[in-house]
Sequence to fold (595 residues):
Amino acid sequence: MDVVDQKRENLLNLALSASEEERLKSENLEIGYDPEDKTWELILRYSGNLNRLRELSDQGVTVRELFNGYAIARVPQGLLDRVSGIREIQYIEKPKRLFFAMDMAKAASCLLGIQPGRREEGRSSGTEPGGHTGGLEHGLTGKGVILGVIDSGIDYLHPDFRNEDGSTRILYLWDQDQGQVYDREDINRALAAYGEQNDRRAALNIVPSVDVSGHGTAAAAIAAGNGRGSDGVYRGVAYESELIAVKLGTSPKDSFPRTTQLMEGLDFILKRAILLERPVAVNVSFGNTYGSHDGTSLLETFMNEASNYSRNVIVTGTGNEGASAGHTAGQLVIGERERIELSVAPFETSFSVQLWKSYADQFSILLTAPDGRSLGPIEERLGPQRLENGNTRILIYYGKPSPYSRAQEVYFDFIPLKDYTDSGIWTFQLTPIELVTGHYDFWLPSGRILNPSTRFLRPVPETTLTIPSTASGVISVGAYNDSNLAYADFSGRGFTRQTRQVKPDLAAPGVDIVTAKAGGGYEAVTGTSFAAPFVTGSAALLMQWGIVDGNDPFLYGEKVKAYLIRGARHLPGYTEWPNERVGYGALCVEESIPK
Fold:
């Protein structure tokens, strides 16, 4: 393997070895590649400076530096080896797609006792474990703390994001699709044009940013909506926080944002908060399944670095892959073969399979197609390989560990020779040769892009949390149903791979949550995407209590996480804490504030 290849992640190396036709058929390899100008969007980790890279700007290279030695670059494919050889660049990854993970919940999260005039709503918090009945009239509303939302956008016209005088509560709105940042003054001009006639067209002529899916609007309102459109009935958590919203850019091909946009959005929010000299809680309700799930990808390490950047808290949902049958795992034993069966539905255009193992373990891999033909054994040869059977071509990359992870990946990309891959049961047979740990994990792509019948026949629901909720520096949130205090089976489970770090950190209500709807009104939503904002808003309340109100000027980052973990309440039906489903327990803000 060439030295520059080792500086690049396995998936990028496989993508570079694939033909353009193969990349276009793949659901993953083409992410980050622009076939029109033949350039790649890349995530860089570097030391020193990027002056050598900037010297290539006249050849089509562009770069945007983020904080703490990370950057996003766009590089012509013909220059990739040269760029990889730059000494200051330590490691390179390609972007991955991100997927969405949707007022009793406020009572369940012990919010009523710490906010003014709200105890009469919902259920009494006195029924919660510990017997504390509240009475802490802290008056916490999020005032003075910024609430950052990185998502599909925000409906700035919705009354829940406007003050009593009709002005906006949004400090900045960065629409990445448009490449435009709108400040408070821009949005207020648009609101003035909207006027009493609700002239949406006039407003959009000034600030033409629309939350098409409504996902970001719903998440933002749970975290910080003021409930003006419902006379306060559907008020969010930190309802006096001002907002910074980032509408993630999407690919015209599939309408999904990428990890590079998430990194740039987080960089934007944190730097604006520093300029404003305000603490900030950031909500991220996106994730993906690609990676070793141990916190070592560049996205995850960037999130860790970001969590130490000024006074912030970053919150992520654990995703909705808990019941998707997209993960399986097992323990190999010398002398015994292991068979992993994967059902592939008809009309599947392409899909990928990741196998992650310890580099110290050695075992052979034999693949059996639905027609019974055996393919392999696959050579333990570092670099790309190709197999074909029926109407399916399989691109394989047998990787090495990276400088940041001891894990070894074997990546399989199934693409059709015509229209669809071969359906039926594909079997991976693992035969141990020499074992140290013996553990293995398989992951499929997000269930959102696969036919529901494409699934492992013996799935393992543990370690189904999505990336970047696997990053140690963020607060990772699972979902439960607050109406019956039961874990929501779709919620991604921990713990992390290899390190067995406790994730999720805690759980919050995530089933049938009523929140603001893009375009006006309200709707019920379900998912960890909508559990995470409860915690983001709660983090803003704690930072208000600590930093803004002067009770603890150092209440941010891991300290907020520690307070929330200490206050978390145990749900019924569990004897072991923390656990893979709900971490240390359910969000309880009142019990998280020092007495």
Remarks:
- DSSP finds 14 helices and 29 strands in the chain.
